[in-house]
Sequence to fold (683 residues):
Amino acid sequence: MRPVSENLLPRIPIIEVFPVVEDGTLPAKATEGEPFPIRATVFREGHDAFAAEAVLLTPDGGEHSRTRMVDIAPGLDRYEAWVAADAPGDWSFRVDSWSDPYATWHHDATVKLGAGVDVELMLEEGARLMERAAAGDAEANPTQERPPASDIEVLHDAARRLRDTTHSAQQRLSAGISSRVRLIFRDHPLRDLIGSSRTYRLDVARTKALAGAWYEIFPRSAGAFQRPDGSWVSGTLASAAEELPRIAEMGFDVVYLTPIHPIGSTHRKGKNNSLIAAPGDPGSPYGIGSPDGGHDAIHPDLGDFDDFDRFVARARSLGLEVALDLALQCSPDHPWVSEHPEWFTTRADGSIAYAENPPKKYQDIYPLNFDNDPGGIYEAIRAVIEIWIRHGVTIFRVDNPHTKPIPFWEKMLADVKAAHPGTLFLAEAFTRPAMMRTLGAIGFDQSYTYFAWRTTKTEIEDYLREVSQDTAHLMRPAFWPTTHDILTPQMWEGGTAIFAIRAMLAALGSPTWGIYSGYEFVENVPRGSFQEPNDNEKYEFRPRRWADADDIGITRLFTLLNAARAKHPALRQLHQIRIHPTSSDSLVAFSRQVPGRFTHDGVPDTVICIVSLDPHNGVDASVELDLEAMGLATPGGHITVVDELDGRSYVWGSSNWVSLSPVTRLGHVFTVEPAHSSPWAQA
Fold:
């Protein structure tokens, strides 16, 4: 005989709860202040009414909020509520269900009195229901609380009126279904037969885990110069600090440093990934380690820890957090190679295996073997992370985390965050979906994505839905148009226009986006057929004259996009997005919304984004808006929109015409004025 489960379903069954990760063994992701949906399938036998609430629980287990769930799929019993946690921490949630005697009576009494059936019986049952509600007497629910005194008086009055035979049956019924009574039962429902789902974990992170504007630099290029004899003088952390005001003025709030550690000389890579380095070639900063130290040291050409501390202090004074690359591999000259050869993979000929990604070979780096001495490797890497946290690093961009064991990351991230709450980790994992999602699920706060390779209208729209709705509880996306390693074929042609288009899609399509320095110059020449930049800064110094970029216009675009993001909470949230139909495959339109009950001033925020996908030709097309579904319906059927890019205002309706050009205008970022909350906000 099959044993009965110890975890019986509640009296009013609750199944298929969302967001739940690995049956609740791992927490779902949430972010302070950001609304997110809780869903469940709730049903019961027969025809009596029932209800469900999403219950959000604080880290100490107390109730933060109860939000009535609404039916989002009539006939399928799928219910939803939107909630928001207001501080980082280990939160949780559950779903409560109960029999709703008032809704049942309201329906039955209205029908029966209209048909003249059981009139006095229904009115008496209504009166008793009012009295039960006033007394807080819910069936099989010892937690039921009485309503406020003013409401109790209203309920007792309704009971008297329901029994008053001097009035007609309809007049008596009206006393039980008045707007005041309905509000009381809405705000203080009589929860008969209450039951609960399991309690599920939520990892609520600080805001920067969700929303940020990153700017990547190679510190050695900042201030670097070439002597008359052709030799190079490296930039320093001090000269890199001089670029921080420029980065902050564009509205970026994270400055990301590629590795700043000593670089090995054995098998050092030359220009454009050449296997032979010429004299003076600086090598790849990812070939970490030399006699000057390893991951816990700073390249002598860049300065020392005092210089780094001054860099961090300057960044913070400008509102920038410092993110540092955490690249867990070693050059053959790394101290760990001689001190701990067991931490690497030894081949049959006695040599240490270098990194490979066929056909690519990385003879300048040795991957760590996490299975040989997992405890020793863990302690060494933990010590490295602790050093940089002590020196002000708050975010780590982790290079290729998908090439390291998942259990290692699960333990490391949990331990670091327990010791240093608010420390964030970005996964640079361009790999299979299962690995990307699992890295997010076990603790990585942000994840690189496939955004760079999503180029057509259908691909972009589908991907926006995927990262915003399907996987948002597992991983927070970061959209990067290019990186120092990635230059997709789309970027090879199209010039300034395609760089502007991709920047707009990145900044508007994801709460976190990033730019690799040099993007302002439309650096679009690939290395042969490889999807990476030619004259890659990874292997050489690349100083730039930033004043020359002003004429191109990308810098100005960055500033406008980041200003719009800072102004509008709708652009800094992930879960809610609506794709709008357009009449052209070269035009993408989508909107993001935050209802008033989730904004600091109580005013709803709606932003409509329109972006051309054609860098060569003008695009003339219609954009269709479902104003009612967006919560923007007006008596005249029109709304006023204001473009955050140039301040121009337009009157829009359900069908609208846009005319875009790669020369004059590639898109709109429309604020809706006045904005109204959307129906989903009332869930």
In short: The chain has four domains: 14-98, 101-190, 207-567, 571-682. DSSP finds 15 helices and 34 strands in the chain. The longest strand covers residues 89-99. The chain has a mean pLDDT of 95.
